[in-house]
Specification:
Blueprint: E1 2-8, H1 15-27, E2 32-37, H2 52-63, E3 69-72, H3 84-94, E4 99-105, H4 106-110, H5 118-124, E5 127-130, E6 148-150, H6 160-168, H7 179-187
Helix pairs in contact: 2-7
Length: 193
């Protein structure tokens, strides 16, 4: 089975994440998408994140109706901070019959050369890259690499930061998140401080 790993803090998960995950599940050769909830992205401050299991629960609520999309807490059990190359190695050991690929935006592809052991990632795993606004694939150094697949997915410019700020400023954010996620955030008064 070929599994696309869609890493993120998902703080919170929103419809943009689901549009990308579903597009990859339906319009690529990937059999399943695993949304890997990252407890600590080395490039983000940990104090801005909701509790790991709350974010995992939100992603579970968001993906209930998508049979090809699974939720993974694999990085919760690994040393912090998490590095993708270590997670990939762990998953390959744990699931030797699966082939793992990465899903990322063009913005992440541009900075891939800064990732820990990015050469090992490219040597062993395909990368499925979705477009971002104001990104020109022509200028991306690695775009012609045999392991890189540029996917013509919808361009969705919704950010978790925008949603958190909307909540803090008492704006209606309902259209930006799945209904069950909205209910959970609203009921538990999340992101209001």
């Amino acid at each position: 089975m070929k599994i696309g790993l869609y890493f993120g803090t998902f703080n919170p998960v929103h419809i943009g994440h689901l549009i990308i995950a579903n597009h990859m599940a339906e319009y690529s050769d990937l059999d399943q998408i695993w949304m890997v909830v990252t407890p600590h992205n080395p490039l983000k401050k940990k104090d801005t994140l909701l509790d790991d299991y709350t974010r995992l629960n939100l992603v579970s609520l968001a993906t209930e109706d998508y049979p090809k999309i699974k939720v993974s807490d694999i990085e919760f059990k690994l040393p912090q901070p998490n590095y993708t190359v270590n997670t990939l190695s762990h998953l390959q050991d744990k699931y030797p019959n699966h082939e793992f690929a990465l899903i990322m935006g063009e913005d992440n592809l541009r900075s891939l050369h800064k990732w820990k052991n990015f050469e090992i990632i490219l040597e062993n795993h395909d990368l499925y890259v979705y477009p971002r606004i104001s990104m020109e694939a022509e200028n991306i150094e690695l775009k012609d690499h045999s392991r890189i697949h540029l996917i013509n997915a919808p361009v969705v410019e919704i950010s978790s930061t925008f949603i958190r700020n909307s909540i803090k400023n008492k704006k209606n954010f309902r259209p930006l998140v799945p209904h069950r996620v909205w209910e959970y955030i609203d009921h538990n008064n999340l992101y209001k401080k």
